[in-house]
């Protein structure tokens, strides 16, 4: 099959900076010609990187939507692409920006105006994972024995993701960032982020707008900040002991790490010579360069080897642009007129050999209770950890799924099923033969989704496969 | 040329050299399938008596497939040194056999003789040699070649690590590779048969194996056994390949069925010389096997032993680093049982070595043949005694991708131990450095693939 | 807390564990014996590496491939269990080649039986050409019983593994019929060919002249599976068809290409053959 590459965009709107990348994801057959056709992304490459611009703000807590949209348009013009050329990608709002007043509206506004199947994503843990994928940590962890932590430090937060053999173990996010304290070249503090206040208070640091601090004082503060974060990361201090510094964590205890990679804007600064004067330090009007220098110094006190990241300031945007889209196909069942589908919540279930109907009904009722916004597609059913089903069992499963779904969701127009195993064509076909003609079936496979994830399914490529984005909020 | 013979009052007459060559063969189901085998045991011996008495010039002057009609014949014909040929042209096939086996004939002399031999003469000799003849004659011959590192020295036995995986999973391939290395296998080559014949997939596997070679500084070479055109595309896209691989047939038509020609091989040869990653000078890996010409109906009525010898004649043109016959892969319609497989393995090894080919053998069988693992162990030991350059190493001899059984990492280690053979010299030093081998014996650490994680 | 409450919680936890770590709980059942003798399951053949330098890494390596790695050794030889397991799998393969498909299996799907000229198992193995031709009797039978010029002709054959048919037909076949229905295709009269080779498709094509033919046939048994099936498909099969004119889905068994998924996919492939009027490498899938 002649495979064109899909163009995928990544847009990262951060606390201090915003950037965009365009990438090309090349699809190819990854199964032999004697096996069922299975396609996947076989090559990813960045084809365009925008400049890193300052995130346009209207005032302290509102992002300038019009300015951003204008910038986006200008970038697309420069690349010479129209919206319909862009087949996938993600817009992510990172760090403190995500808590700004209009973040949510902005995210969806941009996603819809960035291409056919560009999705909006947010959430500190996801951000950490994308940064780790973009920086090269995930790939690197496949080659080493131990656990690799990717610390992505931007303006507002430090997002840490733990990788082992390419798999995500946990994530944690700290209120550690270069722009949390803004200064000028005289050391005068022009702003202190509210998210740092609690920690400053707990440490008896007095930092307020208008105060003048010396380089030594700022260095000392940054040093303690780094020490607290690293102590927590290596398990010297429990998460509870540095609560004021922790934004969120996926678990109460963190895995033991062996190596670290530093990405993000601060990660880039860490590659430079640390500032020796206030003038030097304040070149971005914040403590970023000082924090970077102190972080490198502090790391020397820990038994961690520091590996250089392949990408620093663009790690997250590259992760968003290149690592969010998956491909399902080519033995699946789809109803093209219903695609794309966006933001479908996932109800995960397995299989029960006994009382299948009651088993399924229980999950469907849970789903009905949790998600009631969308009548046409209340949720997608994820079938995981399935045993191999012989034909008769598969047929029974299709009958029960169809029956219960039709009964509980009379207004639904589509039944969406996501299978972990290679069974979507057979199950989709059995469902199709079972359901009434006005109920469509979308059944895709070889995609792993968890309970509580959201899934986006794009328009079919070459009639036989679909791009899929899984927005994972929790990690096992 | 004599074509008629009377044995104890019974007269046998044959129409051609081709017929004599075919009927002189040990019993093979492939020759029977082609309808060219001897009708009974006595006719077989009649053909063999006649063949023993034919001169080498008889064989050259009566080509089984004329050079004008077949490019493989041309390659073989063009490789002959006329002076040396003239000095032995009057030898009978029997003389050739006895000369090879004479105490006074050593590697040096055999190296001279071979330049005057055609592949058909070599096949003729094999047909009148017993199994132990084939072992002893081959054991005199040393063929040392070098890709990145040399293999083939007397007293050594190398192994190809064949870490295949049913879906080409990079992690899966790597896991089997670690297992191979931990048993001291991988000195001949790290060679993977891919499931997916695409340049991207081939490139990925080459990159991974190269990374592992670099990471542990393993004195070996890498190769992915896809079709040569796929490898060429991968190399042009920057894939790091030490060796080029291709399966060969003994006729032009057989090669056409494989999708290759001498012209294509020449072109590939230029590419690997210019863009390969190895030191050299030997940059090819070929595989052959009795029966492949018949399976593509490209045998021209020639028997499978003679055709196999011609594969080596073709291979010689490209100065290969390693060649192996995949002796029992093709199925019972060509080699029915273990007796036939063992005979073919010894014939192929001898015929390759006599033509100066760095011969290894994939000692193997499929599950619909009358053979089992014991037969493979027998043949592996016989070949070890014959001085085979390398054997194939597959986890527990079971190739989960090609669905056949070969020899295991354990088997190669055992043949080495039983016969006092060593790995290739640089590889042995490396094994010592890694703590896997001491004085040619596996240490306590050996057999633990996690040494490489 | 009441005792039954505790019991309830323990049971819940156990259930949860069972769900999360099914493999681990299975290992507890190792080396069961009863009065009559040993009971072997998959786990009982497992061996382990004593004192691996990175013990945590062993299971990941083993899980990454079906190859028999991490098996350890005694001297340079494999451990007894590893060797017996290999021999056991080989035994299954040998039996699959020598076995026969049960009449009852064929009756379940209304398949009548015809034979090729294979004569017996030994000739079948030595003379693939004989497995490509139906006997005169068979030709008469199918001319008599089958719909001529069907859109889709389905044929089943034992090939090199009778157990492939026994294991997979019950899943592949009904899924295939469903896929014909979904794609609005109609099938002729199906039957079973004893002693068939792939190219018997050509002979059948000459006799019945279907638009497309699908042959479900037992593959040469491997050690991973002795019951693997292939589905060969061809547009207007006839004498002179070459290998590259056929499409195939191979390795069909419960641990390989899933039988129901393979069956479901066949209809799509056949439909494309009918649309493009071609099969094999030229078919765009």
UniProtKB/TrEMBL annotation, chain A:
InterPro entries: ATPase_NBD, EutA, FtsA/MreB. It comes from the Bacteria. PANTHER family: CELL DIVISION PROTEIN FTSA-RELATED, ETHANOLAMINE AMMONIA-LYASE REACTIVASE EUTA. SUPFAM superfamilies: Actin-like ATPase domain (SSF53067). This is Ethanolamine ammonia-lyase reactivating factor EutA. Pfam families: EutA.
TrEMBL record, chain B:
It is found in: Bacterial microcompartment. The keyword Cell wall biogenesis/degradation does not apply. It holds the Pfam family EutB. It catalyses: ethanolamine = acetaldehyde + NH4(+). Binds between the large and small subunits. Pathway: Amine and polyamine degradation; ethanolamine degradation. Its cofactor is adenosylcob(III)alamin. One of its GO terms (cellular component) is ethanolamine degradation polyhedral organelle. GO terms for biological process: amino acid metabolic process; ethanolamine catabolic process. GO terms for molecular function: cobalamin binding; ethanolamine ammonia-lyase activity. Belongs to the EutB family. This is Ethanolamine ammonia-lyase large subunit. It comes from Neobacillus rhizophilus. The lineage of its organism: Bacteria, Bacillati, Bacillota, Bacilli, Bacillales.
């Amino acid at each position: 099959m002649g495979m064109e590459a899909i163009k995928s965009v990544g847009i990262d709107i951060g606390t201090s900076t915003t950037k965009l990348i365009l990438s090309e994801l090349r699809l190819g057959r990854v199964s032999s010609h004697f096996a069922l056709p299975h396609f996947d992304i076989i090559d990813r490459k960045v084809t365009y990187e925008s400049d890193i611009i300052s995130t346009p703000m209207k005032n302290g807590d509102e992002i300038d939507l019009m300015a951003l949209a204008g910038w986006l348009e200008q970038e697309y013009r420069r690349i010479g692409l129209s919206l319909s050329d862009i087949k996938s990608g993600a817009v992510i709002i990172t760090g403190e920006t995500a808590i700004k007043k209009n973040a949510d509206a902005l995210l969806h506004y941009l996603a819809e105006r960035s291409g056919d199947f560009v999705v909006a994503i947010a959430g500190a843990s996801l951000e950490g994972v994308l940064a780790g994928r973009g920086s090269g940590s995930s790939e690197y962890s496949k080659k080493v024995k131990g656990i690799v932590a990717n610390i992505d430090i931007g303006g507002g937060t430090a997002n840490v993701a733990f990788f082992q053999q390419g798999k995500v173990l946990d994530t944690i996010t700290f209120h550690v960032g270069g722009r949390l304290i803004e200064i000028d070249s005289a050391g005068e503090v022009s702003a202190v982020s509210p998210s740092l206040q609690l920690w400053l208070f707990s440490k008896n640091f007095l930092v307020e707008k208008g105060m003048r601090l010396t380089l030594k004082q700022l260095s000392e503060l940054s040093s303690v900040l780094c020490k607290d974060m690293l102590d927590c990361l290596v398990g010297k201090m429990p998460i509870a002991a540095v609560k004021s510094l922790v934004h969120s964590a996926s678990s109460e205890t963190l895995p033991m790490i062996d190596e670290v990679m530093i990405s993000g804007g601060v990660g880039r600064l860490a590659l430079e010579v640390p500032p020796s004067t206030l003038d030097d330090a304040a070149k971005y009007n914040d403590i970023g360069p000082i924090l970077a220098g102190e972080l490198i110094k502090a790391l020397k006190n820990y038994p961690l080897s520091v590996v250089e990241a392949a990408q620093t300031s663009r790690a997250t945007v590259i992760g968003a642009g290149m690592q969010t889209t998956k491909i399902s196909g080519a033995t699946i069942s789809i109803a093209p007129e219903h695609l794309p589908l966006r933001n479908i919540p996932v109800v995960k279930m397995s299989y029960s050999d006994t009382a299948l109907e009651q088993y399924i009904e229980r999950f469907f009722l849970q789903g009905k209770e949790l998600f009631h916004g969308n009548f046409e597609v209340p949720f997608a059913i994820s079938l995981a950890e399935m045993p191999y089903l012989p034909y008769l069992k598969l047929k029974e499963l299709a009958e029960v799924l169809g029956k219960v779904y039709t009964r509980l969701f009379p207004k639904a127009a589509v039944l969406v099923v996501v299978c972990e195993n290679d069974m979507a064509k057979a199950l989709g076909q059995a469902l199709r033969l079972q359901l009434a003609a006005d109920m469509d079936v979308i059944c895709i496979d070889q995609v792993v989704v968890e309970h509580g994830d959201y899934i986006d399914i794009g328009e079919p490529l070459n009639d036989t496969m679909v791009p899929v984005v899984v927005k994972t909020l929790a990690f096992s | 040329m004599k074509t008629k013979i009377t044995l104890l009052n019974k007269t046998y007459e044959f129409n051609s050299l081709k017929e004599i060559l075919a009927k002189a063969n040990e019993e093979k189901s492939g020759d029977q399938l082609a309808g060219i085998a001897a009708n009974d045991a006595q006719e077989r011996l009649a053909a063999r008596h006649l063949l023993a008495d034919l001169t080498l010039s008889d064989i050259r002057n009566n080509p089984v497939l004329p050079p004008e009609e077949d490019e493989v014949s041309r390659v073989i014909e063009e490789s002959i040194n006329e002076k040396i040929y003239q000095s032995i042209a009057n030898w009978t096939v029997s003389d050739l056999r006895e000369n090879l086996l004479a105490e006074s004939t050593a590697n040096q002399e055999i190296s001279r003789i071979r330049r005057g031999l055609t592949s058909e003469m070599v096949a003729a000799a094999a047909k009148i040699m017993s199994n132990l003849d084939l072992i002893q004659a081959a054991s005199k011959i040393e063929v040392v070649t070098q890709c990145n590192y040399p293999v083939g020295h007397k007293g050594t036995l190398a192994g190809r690590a064949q870490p295949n995986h049913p879906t080409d999973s990079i992690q899966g391939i790597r896991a089997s590779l670690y297992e191979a290395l931990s048993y001291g296998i991988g000195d001949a080559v790290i060679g993977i048969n891919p499931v997916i014949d695409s340049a991207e997939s081939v490139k990925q596997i080459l990159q991974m194996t190269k990374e592992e070679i670099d990471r542990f500084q393993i004195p070996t070479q890498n190769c992915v056994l896809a079709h040569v055109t796929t490898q060429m595309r991968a190399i042009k896209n920057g894939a790091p390949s030490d060796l080029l691989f291709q399966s060969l047939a003994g006729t032009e038509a057989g090669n056409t069925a494989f999708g290759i020609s001498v012209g294509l091989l020449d072109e590939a040869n230029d590419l690997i010389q210019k863009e390969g990653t190895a030191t050299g000078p030997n940059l090819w890996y070929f595989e052959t096997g009795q029966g492949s010409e018949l399976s593509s109906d490209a045998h021209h009525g020639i028997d499978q032993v003679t055709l196999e010898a011609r594969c080596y004649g073709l291979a010689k043109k490209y100065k290969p680093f390693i060649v192996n016959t995949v002796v029992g892969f093709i199925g019972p319609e060509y080699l029915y049982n273990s007796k036939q497989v063992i005979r073919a393995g010894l014939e192929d090894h001898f015929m390759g070595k006599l033509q100066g080919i760095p011969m290894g053998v994939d000692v193997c069988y499929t599950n619909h043949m009358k053979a089992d693992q014991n037969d493979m162990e027998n043949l592996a030991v016989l070949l070890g005694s014959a001085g085979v350059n390398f054997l194939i190493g597959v986890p527990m001899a079971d190739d989960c991708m090609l669905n056949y059984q070969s020899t295991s990492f354990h088997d190669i280690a055992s043949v080495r131990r039983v016969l006092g053979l060593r790995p290739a010299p640089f590889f042995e030093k490396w094994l010592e450095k890694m703590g896997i081998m001491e004085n040619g014996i596996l240490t306590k650490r050996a057999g633990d693939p996690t040494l490489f994680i | 807390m009441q005792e039954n409450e505790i019991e309830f919680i323990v049971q819940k936890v156990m259930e949860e564990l069972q769900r999360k770590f099914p493999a681990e709980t299975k290992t507890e059942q190792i080396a069961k014996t009863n009065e009559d003798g040993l009971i072997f399951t998959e786990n009982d053949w497992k061996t382990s590496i004593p004192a691996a330098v990175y013990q945590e890494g062993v299971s990941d390596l083993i899980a990454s491939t079906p190859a028999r790695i991490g098996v350890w050794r005694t001297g340079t030889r494999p451990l007894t269990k590893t060797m017996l397991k290999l021999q056991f799998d080989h035994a299954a393969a040998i039996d699959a080649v020598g076995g026969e498909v049960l009449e009852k299996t064929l009756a379940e799907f209304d398949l009548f039986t015809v034979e090729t000229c294979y004569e017996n198992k030994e000739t079948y193995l030595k003379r693939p050409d004989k497995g490509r031709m139906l006997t005169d009797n068979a030709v008469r039978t199918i001319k008599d019983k089958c719909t001529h010029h069907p859109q889709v002709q389905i044929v089943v054959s034992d090939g090199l593994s009778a157990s492939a048919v026994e294991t997979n037909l019950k899943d592949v076949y009904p899924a295939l019929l469903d896929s014909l229905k979904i794609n609005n295709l109609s099938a002729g009269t199906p039957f079973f060919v004893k002693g068939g080779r792939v190219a018997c498709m050509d002979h059948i094509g000459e006799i019945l002249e279907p638009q497309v033919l699908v042959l479900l046939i037992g593959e040469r048994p491997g050690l991973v599976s002795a019951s693997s099936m292939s589905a060969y498909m061809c547009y207007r099969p006839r004498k002179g068809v070459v290998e590259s004119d056929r499409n195939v889905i191979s390795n069909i068994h419960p641990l390989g290409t899933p039988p129901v998924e393979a069956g479901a996919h066949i209809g799509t492939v056949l439909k494309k053959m009918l649309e493009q009027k071609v099969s094999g490498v030229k078919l765009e899938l």
